[in-house]
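Hey all, sorry for the wall of text incoming. These are the two entities for the joint prediction.
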Amino acid sequence: MLLRHCLALALAVSLSATVAADEAKPAHTPSPKELLAKSQPQEWRTPDPQNLLVMQLPQGRVLIELAPDFAPLHVANIRTMAHEHYYDGLAIVRVHDNFVTQWGDPASDDNGDKSKLKSLGSAKDKLPPEYTRPYDAKLPFTALKDGDFYAPEVGFSEGFPVARDQANHQEWLTHCYGMVGVGRDIDPETGSGSELYAVIGQAPRALDRNIAVVGRVLQGVEYLSGLPRGTGPLGFYEQPDQRIAIGSVRLAADLPADQRPAIQVLRTDSATFAALVDAKRNRLDDFYRFPVHKVDLCSVSIPVRDAKTLH
Amino acid sequence: MLLRHCLALALAVSLSATVAADEAKPAHTPSPKELLAKSQPQEWRTPDPQNLLVMQLPQGRVLIELAPDFAPLHVANIRTMAHEHYYDGLAIVRVHDNFVTQWGDPASDDNGDKSKLKSLGSAKDKLPPEYTRPYDAKLPFTALKDGDFYAPEVGFSEGFPVARDQANHQEWLTHCYGMVGVGRDIDPETGSGSELYAVIGQAPRALDRNIAVVGRVLQGVEYLSGLPRGTGPLGFYEQPDQRIAIGSVRLAADLPADQRPAIQVLRTDSATFAALVDAKRNRLDDFYRFPVHKVDLCSVSIPVRDAKTLH
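and here's what came out:
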């Protein structure tokens, strides 16, 4: 029994935009890999080094793309902290199952020694809330035609999952898997970017518009999600030696050119991206007997590839 | 800065069923803990030992409740395998980030030594598909009034998240976080329960109605989700020593009474469960400025408690 194939096949997808569910199956059902192999070079973009955070953990390297168009002040502050090596030596302090992995200064924990708090240097310690931004028709937006459970309209802007409410002139980044947000206290002006979290479970969309979202993990999210869960309240690690030390966090722009990560992200306004979404929406192959003909925003993954291995 | 509170407060919820979003905030905003503290004994149920799997991993104990009303033949087969100790010594072979953790016989992998396949004993090696069940108005069903992105109607039956389509006379278990399904090959009759998976990421609802779902992890899902991700294709572990050995899987009914897990699950048709769902739906407190007034099926968690620690 090739049980290895059991779920493998669950991922085989087909391009069936022109094939109704009750028609004959298409002769060829391209996989995401096949669709990506046919992509054109101009469909890929290289993230701006000013927007790319490189976090070194003992488990591996995590790359985070920042979204300055959605949270400009927070992103600027995070750039400053990375530039001044604020995050180096801090730690992952919380892994809350089916919710978030969070990192920051352990001394800021309730039981932490406040006298040991690391200085934020020239970064600001509080910022105005940037939970939504004014709706801007000029911001690129590729709508997801399927709609959304929570927001009037969703889609992708500049590589990020986005919701928008044109009636109320707002748009915002959504809490999908791998999205990165800014921890804060009750006061909306207490977030600075010194404490960040990444979503590692079912999208907690109720957080949307209640907290500043600043970016997305492009690569290495498994080093944040594949960690033992904290056993303290809310998933905080109870013992200091359970925390995972952060080696360093650098802005790619601050690294020598030859040390910058050579990655590319599929443009969310490209034909190949549209084909991938459509394939996921209309799965119809030997494994999928009942394609659902819908796809929700947070189930769409945005491909990233290593530019060095391109042939 | 009490950054420890940043996301802690994200979880503080309020009972605001009677409070409109634009009204004054309620004086008291009970947390899930407070709501549960006021629950009545009869709102909790003890899972039938015939439906409770106890899986011992090096990381800890995982409890899975089986759903015989939705996949009776698969559940019967799994009971047989547990009874005959089939799973003992098998392994977690795959941890696919944001998707599933899967366990079974490593010899069944593509590169496995088929001569070492463990016998299924008196269990069947293939079963008819049980992906949906006929709609039954007599099956308990507590509707989630918010609706669903994928299915005409969703709610909870006997403690499980369920979707149903009355027009087509079908109902089925949904692929929410922690739900357990049966790996199979392309042929729908190749699932047996010898290979199982648990969802550890954004709910892969497109799998609904395409695969047999047999239960839900009640406790210990963090021992399945908090594992290093497999680096092979589809998240399979590439080296045998990366796999996590399963100590044993027992049906609680096969254990001496004093070794059975003493847990209780909140009834999904109870007033306290309804209050928890409503609190999650209408979050309105000092942290949440924009309650979304909706909750999606897979964001609802079903509380489990240790009966031994009750006072």
